[in-house]
């Protein structure tokens, strides 16, 4: 087989393996990383343990969907930039297709008032509560970071704008830099080698920041619905630290107050997103479809994942220097603490206030929470139980 044939065979293998993972990877980003490790490191030996650990560390350091970025990085290390794209498509498209179909049915048949939709909204309460507990334990272990999280909660609830969240993240980064710049680094890993040049990395980072700052101006100048959509999803994908659940408040602030979709539609889609495998960021496909049909769903998916692509490609050549920098690590510790606060604020409004209406809703949420956290049942079971329970409760109400 010639070189071109080997390259296409490698790309096909990446696509098939990543698609299988995209169809079977339930459980959120931490579970995804476990699936990746089993498939790519232990079974196929596409990379060694240390290289995988370095790649995971980088993706957790960057904003955006960590598991998707790890998948992109593995594909890139296996077959270059095209391999990263193919890996992303395979892992992401199954859930994108399902959520586009769900949004189409929900929107066309006007089912947002159905009992099972109320059940899915309660599922959203349970899932976010679980995420908060896990993140708070890891990201706010001391009183300083707990205080930063409290500051974020108060600020976001008192001044409910997208700019508040961005400001909170920036201020928390500065506080973290001040408090933790002398923090001891626990990093015994060796230097990693990634197949991306520094020049290419600089181009990607320049494009990342260029789009982040230019899209809002372009949005105002052109006043075209598609540009506004791309800007909102791109900004949400670029400013999310801490994983898929944190994108919820950013997307809610972007699309619900502006009337692009109702709060009921938003929370129903968020609950449904828990039932599908793959990255939670594909929730954007649901929102885009509600707003502008399947074309809107595809545009939303492209927009929210573009920052992840640009950041992973841009940061790979510089990762060894960044991870050993005290100042960068300190700033990130502050940002991660603020993320916990932002998620708590989103948990109260809109999730809790629009989902837990009475004592019956609270009791049902408690049952689902115990099933998820203590019985450790898979998310799709929780979603199915939520939908069925919501239907039954609406019938006996």
UniProtKB/TrEMBL annotation:
Matching Pfam families: Chromate_transp (PF02417)
GO CC terms: plasma membrane
Compartments in which it is found: Cell membrane
Membrane-spanning parts: 12-36, 81-103, 115-136, 148-180, 200-221, 233-251, 271-291, 298-319, 331-349, 356-374
Membrane topology (UniProt): Multi-pass membrane protein
InterPro entries in UniProt: Chr_Tranpt_l_chain, Chromate_transpt
Top-level taxon of the source organism: Bacteria
UniProt main location, coarse: membrane
GO-annotated molecular function: chromate transmembrane transporter activity
Keywords in alphabetical order: Cell membrane, Membrane, Transmembrane, Transmembrane helix
NCBIfam families: 2A51 (TIGR00937)
Similarity comment text for this entry: Belongs to the chromate ion transporter (CHR) (TC 2.A.51) family.
Official protein name in the record: Chromate transporter
């Amino acid at each position: 087989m010639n070189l071109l044939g080997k390259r296409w065979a490698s790309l096909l293998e990446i696509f098939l393996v990543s698609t299988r993972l995209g169809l079977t990877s339930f459980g959120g980003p931490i579970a995804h990383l476990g699936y990746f490790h089993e498939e790519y490191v232990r079974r196929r030996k596409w990379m060694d343990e240390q290289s995988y650990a370095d790649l995971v560390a980088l993706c957790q350091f960057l904003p955006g969907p960590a598991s998707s970025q790890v998948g992109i990085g593995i594909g890139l290390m296996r077959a270059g930039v095209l391999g990263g794209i193919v890996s992303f498509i395979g892992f992401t498209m199954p859930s994108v297709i399902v959520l586009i179909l769900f949004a189409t049915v929900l929107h066309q048949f006007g089912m947002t008032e159905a009992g099972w939709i109320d059940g899915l909204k309660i599922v959203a309460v349970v899932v976010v509560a679980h995420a908060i507990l896990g993140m708070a334990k890891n990201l706010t272990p001391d009183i300083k970071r707990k205080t930063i999280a409290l500051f974020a909660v108060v600020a976001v609830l008192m001044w409910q704008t997208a700019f508040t969240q961005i400001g909170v993240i920036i201020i928390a980064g500065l506080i973290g830099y001040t408090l933790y710049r002398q923090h001891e680094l626990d990093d015994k890993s060796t230097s990693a080698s990634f197949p991306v040049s520094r020049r290419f990395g600089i181009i990607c980072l320049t494009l990342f920041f260029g789009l982040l700052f230019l899209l809002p101006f372009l949005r105002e100048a052109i006043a075209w619905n598609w540009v506004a959509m791309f800007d909102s999803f791109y900004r949400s994908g670029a400013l999310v630290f801490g994983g898929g659940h944190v994108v919820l408040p950013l997307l809610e602030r972007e699309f619900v107050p502006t009337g692009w979709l109702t709060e009921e539609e938003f929370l129903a889609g968020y609950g449904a997103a828990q039932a599908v495998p793959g990255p939670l960021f594909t929730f954007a496909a649901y929102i885009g479809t509600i707003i502008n049909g399947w074309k809107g769903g595809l545009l939303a998916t492209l927009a929210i994942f573009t920052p992840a692509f640009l950041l992973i490609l841009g940061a790979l050549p510089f990762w060894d220097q960044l991870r050993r920098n005290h100042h960068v690590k300190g700033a990130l510790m502050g940002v991660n603490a603020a993320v916990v606060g932002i998620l708590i604020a989103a948990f109260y409004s809109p999730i809790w206030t629009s989902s837990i209406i009475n004592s019956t809703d609270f009791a049902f949420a408690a049952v689902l929470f115990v099933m998820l956290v203590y019985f450790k049942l898979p998310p799709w079971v929780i979603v199915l139980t939520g939908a069925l329970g919501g239907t039954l409760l609406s019938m006996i109400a």
